[in-house]
Design goal:
There is one protein chain. This protein has 155 residues and is an alpha+beta fold. The protein has one domain: ph1033 like fold. It contains five helices and eight strands, in the order βααβαβββββαβα. A six-stranded mixed β-sheet has the order 2-7-4-3-1-8. It has a two-stranded antiparallel sheet with strand order 5-6. Strand 3 and strand 4 form a beta hairpin. The longest helix is centred in the C-terminal third of the chain and has 13 residues. The chain is globular, with a radius of gyration of 16 Å.
């Protein structure tokens, strides 16, 4: 099993949306590195922190599960979509997505709280200039944050 962090703006699609829907296709990713994580590395059963970005209190707001292997993102073929890509074809799609299932909503583990933990100092989300919507999380980082959520204690 691998672990991930998925970023989304809660005003666009937040943990409450995922809870209501139960599952969703994680579409619209237009960064090659993030696409490659989905296409090449994500598998059914992987777990992900659901991170709220570009909001009043950015941070981890829940947990999700990857439901299966990546498949072509349909928004790349839809001329009416802001995610349309004229260079993508059905025979050679450029963009992929995975299906994500709601696991649970958590208290918000804030960005400041993450930055304040020495055990998390190398976490990709905390790197200067990181703007990826999908980042890997190490097992040690996952377990540290799980302990924070469970006990509201130090890692």
């Amino acid at each position: 099993m691998k672990y991930w962090l998925l970023k989304s703006e809660p005003s666009t699609y937040g943990i409450d949306h995922l809870k209501k829907d139960g599952a969703t296709a994680w579409t619209g990713v237009r960064n090659y590195q993030a696409r490659n994580f989905m296409r090449d590395e994500m598998r059914a059963g992987d777990r992900a922190f659901f991170y709220h970005s570009s909001c009043e209190v950015p941070g981890i707001a829940g947990i999700a599960e990857i439901r299966g292997a990546a498949y072509p993102d349909e928004t790349q073929f839809d001329r009416k979509s802001p995610q349309y890509d004229a260079a993508a074809t059905r025979d050679e799609p450029r963009w992929f997505n995975v299906d994500v299932k709601f696991v649970k909503k958590t208290r918000t583990v804030t960005l400041e709280e993450l930055r304040g933990r020495k055990e998390l100092k190398n976490m990709v989300i905390l790197r200067r200039g990181n703007r990826l919507s999908i980042t890997p999380v190490t097992k040690a980082e996952w377990e540290c944050i799980q302990r924070l959520l469970k006990e509201d204690a130090e890692c």
